[in-house]
Amino acid sequence: IHDLCRRKDIPPPPELRRALDLPEPPPVARQRPPARRQASGEIRSGEINSGTQPSLPAIAPPATPLGTRLRNPSQRLRAATEVLQGRASPDDLSQVIDALEEFETSELLALLPDLAELGLRVVPGLVNKLRSERREVRQAAVILLGMSREPGAMQRLSEHLVWEPTTVWLDVARALGWYGTAAIRSLCQLLRQETASPREQLAIDRVARALAEIAVAQGSGGDPQTGRDAVRALADAADPRVSTAARRALSSLPEVSSSG
């Protein structure tokens, strides 16, 4: 039996070992069963699988509508700035211009550079703001329309020169001055339209200021001497309203130049 155990390479039974006084066989290490393969995402009892879990797409919160943000005093300036500095759609731009009625004066001043950068895109909305109930909004619209030098806006500014009930009319005159000699025709038409009206004298006074602004303007793209010569020529015009306005403009040039 002992010989058979040696051939089979198995330990002899205990009875044989005791009978033959054989040494105890070395302990045989127990083989661990093969590890069970864990399916992806499987959670065992008492542990969390550290494997990569399938990620779900993040659900972004719904964006707050632009109109709502523009009505919120704490958000409106940021919302308007984002629209004006981004690729604003016509609808978004219209909402921002409409909302200017609610903005504080400091907020309007902060938005002027961005509105000016948009040029002709803001002209239609700003023309409508010439009839705003707020003086500050009308003033901002006048300044920006003058900077645009858009011909259609020039005509509306000429009409607004006589309508404006506050000192913003001085900003209107200055804005027309930025158009240079191109604005003279509209101003002369304005004087003819106001002939024999209750505002005729007012029109002469304010057109005189606008002509003076044209004569001293440095931003019209040409030599200011050209504007001054054009106003001098109007002083000899056959229309007495035009000639009166031109002479008053020439006499006020030092004052207008010093006022900036």
Low-confidence regions? none
Helical amount: 55-70%
Question: Can you summarize the main beta sheet?
Answer: none
Number of helices: 15
Query: What overall geometry do the principal axes of the alpha carbons give?
Result: rod-shaped
The total count of strands amounts to 0
SSE order, one letter for each helix or strand:
HHHHHHHHHHHHHHH
> What is the averaged pLDDT score?
85
- The class by helix and strand makeup works out as mainly alpha
Q: Calculate Rg over CA atoms.
A: 44 Å
Distance between the termini: 126 Å
Amount of beta strand: under 5%
Could you characterize the architecture of this molecule?
The chain is an all-alpha fold and 260 residues long. Helices cover 59% and strands 0% of the residues. It starts with a helix and ends with a helix.
What secondary-structure arrangement, pairings included, does this model have?
Elements lengths: L1 H7 L5 H7 L45 H5 L5 H10 L4 H10 L5 H13 L5 H6 L6 H14 L2 H13 L4 H11 L5 H10 L6 H17 L7 H11 L5 H12 L1 H7 L1
Helix pairs in contact: 4-6, 6-8, 8-10, 9-10, 10-12, 11-12, 12-13, 12-14, 13-14
